[in-house]
């Protein structure tokens, strides 16, 4: 499995088997719409893959990690680490940091100051190029809480410092990602889901959509343009448009969460007689809110074809 170096909230890496067993056997062009960390697009078996997300920063990050060599990414991240005096357990070992570790806070205390400076540096647009900005954001992602990507309403990265650093595990994910993008015909593009109406799609192509879910709270629902009933309805009408043209699609979503139900979605499924497949999984990191985490969610995959 190709790992995404973006530990994206709600990523589908643990659900891939369940998804792929319900995808068509032969796919020419695969569209990963609302791709996030692109865990689906990077692993699907298709001739061409195009990953879309409307988050410019996410797409620039994916494009940059694909464009630059692994060595130049690692070298640049290590430069940021040295400049901002961040921990480097991969090269220096853990021992020199032990005295800064309290309870289960990992490297948080050691990195707090340097991380905060790096975040201000990034938010003040101190860098010259788009690529350098993206690698700086990648460094922040490596050092921030939960490795989550979150921006405030004015576009500033606002995650607090986390417990880990540029360790073996994240380096391995980067290697895996580089292997994936070098061995696959995959593209990343910033676009809204409405682009689906304008793509040149045929009956042997396939669209997978993993939008924000109306009844769950993930970080990408908090900042920027919020996912709401209007967007949900627009997306479903775009999917109906694809269906009318014989284009196969699969939509991930959550139909019920505790007592809450996404009624817009359930009535659309019913009216169109689409197929609903139940996916066996509850997100653990989709919310910081304990109450939210404890509420069971009904994760589903909706298809406009028989599996
Ligand atoms: C559930 S996440 C996708 C996770 C992804 N499948 C993965 O495995 O990492 C939802 C994504 O939808 C994107 N999104 C939100 N509104 C969108 C829109 N109008 N058009 C396209 N993408 C959108 C968000 O930026 C976010 O990355």
Number of domains: 2
Residue share in β-strands: 5-15%
CATH topology of the largest domain: Rossmann fold
Oligomer: single chain
Structural class: alpha/beta
- Which ions, cofactors or small ligands are bound in this entry? S-adenosylmethionine
Q: Helices and strands, in N-to-C order? A: HEEHHHHHHEEHEEHEHE
- The CATH homologous superfamily of the largest domain is called Vaccinia Virus protein VP39
Distance between the termini: 23 Å
Brief characterization of the structure:
The chain has 307 residues and is α/β, with parallel strands linked by helices. It is built from 10 helices and 8 strands. The protein has helices at 16-20, 56-67, 70-83, 89-92, 108-123, 130-143, 168-182, 229-244, 263-272, 290-294; strands at residues 29-33, 48-53, 186-190, 206-209, 248-257, 260-261, 275-278, 297-303.
Describe this structure in words.
The chain is α/β, with parallel strands linked by helices. The chain folds into 2 domains: 13-54 and 191-303, 3-Layer(aba) Sandwich (Rossmann fold), CATH 3.40.50; 62-167, Orthogonal Bundle (Adenine-specific Methyltransferase, domain 2), CATH 1.10.1020. The chain is 36% helix and 14% strand. The protein is built from 10 helices and 8 strands. The protein has helices at 16-20, 56-67, 70-83, 89-92, 108-123, 130-143, 168-182, 229-244, 263-272, 290-294, and strands at 29-33, 48-53, 186-190, 206-209, 248-257, 260-261, 275-278, 297-303. Strands 1, 2, 3, 4, 5, 6, 7 and 8 form an 8-stranded mixed sheet that branches. A hairpin with a 2-residue loop joins β5 (248-257) and β6 (260-261). It starts with 15 loop residues before the first helix and ends with a strand. The relative contact order is 0.16. Residues 8, 10-12, 34-37, 39-40, 53-55, 58, 192-193, 210-212, 220, 227 line the site of S-adenosylmethionine. The site of S-adenosylmethionine has 21 residues, from loops.
